[in-house]
Amino acid sequence: MVPSRRHKAKMPSATSVVARSYPDNIIGIDNRLPWRLRSDLRHFKETTDKHAIIMGRRTFDSLPKKPLPNRYNIVLSRDPIVETDQLRWAKDISTALLLADTFSICNMQKQFFVIGGETIYAQFINFINQVWLTEVFTGSMNGDAKFEYVFNKSEWWIRSENEFAQSEFDEFPFRLTHYIRRKEEHRTRAIEDFRYGDGVSVALLDQWLEKFGVPDAIHTFGEQLPLL
Ligand SMILES: NC(=O)c1ccc[n+]([C@@H]2O[C@H](COP(=O)([O-])OP(=O)(O)OC[C@H]3O[C@@H](n4cnc5c(N)ncnc54)[C@H](OP(=O)(O)O)[C@@H]3O)[C@@H](O)[C@H]2O)c1
Questions:
Q1: How far apart are CA 39 and CA 45, in angstroms?
Q2: Judging by DSSP bridges, how do beta strands 128-136 and 26-28 pair with one another?
Q3: Is the CB of 117 under 6 A from ligand 1?
Q4: Residue 20 Cα, ligand 1 centroid: separation in angstroms?
Q5: Is the pLDDT of residue 197 over 60?
C-alpha cells in the first residue's frame, strides 16, 4: 500500500572530512595522499566509524585497504562496481544520497560523511553542514588534486580547533578545525523514495525522526505504509 499523499521527512546531515596542504590547498598527488599523519588518520577512523561514507572511484582505488572496514562504503562511478554488504556502487549523486540516507536511518546515525576526492567535495559542498578540515603545514608543494574552498566567517563557525606537532608518527605539524555551517542545509525526502532503498521500515523511520528530525519536518505516516 502506498500512503495517500507524499510525506516529507528531514534527512541525515552531510559532513566532509578533508586534509589539505597549507598554503597550496593540495589534497593529493598521483592518486595518493602526499603525507603520513597517523594522528589525523586515527581521528578520521574514529569520526567516520560505523557511518556511511561517500567517495569518488579514484579515491576508492587509492585506499590501501578497501572497502574501509566498519563503514558503509558508497563509491561514485559511471561504471558498475561489484557490490558487497559494505560496498555499494552509486551511479550518480542522487543514488549516493539515497544509499547514505537509508543506511544512516537504519543504523540510527544522524550524519554521513563525504570523504573526497576533489570532484566529490566540489559536487557536495553546498549541502555539507559540517567539515572536519585538516590543514597540513607542508609549505609550498606540488599536487594534482585540490580543495580550494574558502571558509567564510559569515557562513561558518568553528566548534573546535586543535594543533598537532610534527612527531615520529606525523610527518608534518597540522591543525584540525571543525567547521559548522551557520544556516544548516536540510534535505527532505518523500517517504515513498525509500521504496527504492534497502528496507527502511516505518517504525525505524519514526524512531529516527523522533531522535534527529526537527518537529516541523515530521509528518504523520500512512498507517498502511509497508515494510520497505
Ligand atoms: N587529502 C584528503 O583529504 C583526500 C581525501 C580523498 C581523496 N584525496 C585525494 O584526491 C585525489 C582523488 O580525487 P579526484 O578528484 O581525482 O577523484 P575522485 O573525486 O576521488 O573520483 C573521481 C571519480 O568519481 C566518479 N564520479 C565523480 N562524480 C560522479 C558523479 N556525479 N556520478 C558518477 N560518478 C562520479 C568518476 O568515476 P569513473 O571515472 O569511474 O566514472 C570520477 O572519475 C587522490 O589524489 C586522493 O588521494 C585526498
A1: 10
A2: unpaired
A3: yes
A4: 15
A5: no
Q: How far is the CA of 57 from the centre of ligand 1 (A)?
A: 5
Q: Is residue 77 within 6 Å of ligand 1 at its C-beta? A: yes
Q: 31 — phi, psi (to 5°)? A: 55, 45
C-alpha 106 – ligand 1 centre gap (Å): 27
Nearest CA to ligand 1 atom 9: 28
The whole-model pTM stands at 0.91
Residue 78 CB–ligand 1 contact under 6 Å = yes
Ligand 1 center to 61 CA (angstroms): 9
Angle at 22 between CA 17 and CA 28, to 5 degrees: 55
Lowest average pLDDT, out of 133-137, 141-145, 195-199, goes to 195-199
pLDDT band at 211 (very low <50, low <70, confident <90, very high): confident
**Who's near 94: CB < 8 A, 6+ residues apart?**
none
Separation between Cα atoms, residue 18 and residue 26, nearest integer Å:
10
Nearest of 140, 126, 142, 136 to residue 177 by alpha carbon: 136
Nearest ligand 1 atom to the CA of 27 is 1
What does the mean pLDDT of the chain come to? 88
Report the SS3 class of residue 202: helix
Domains of the chain (ranges; CATH) run 8-217 (3.40.430.10)
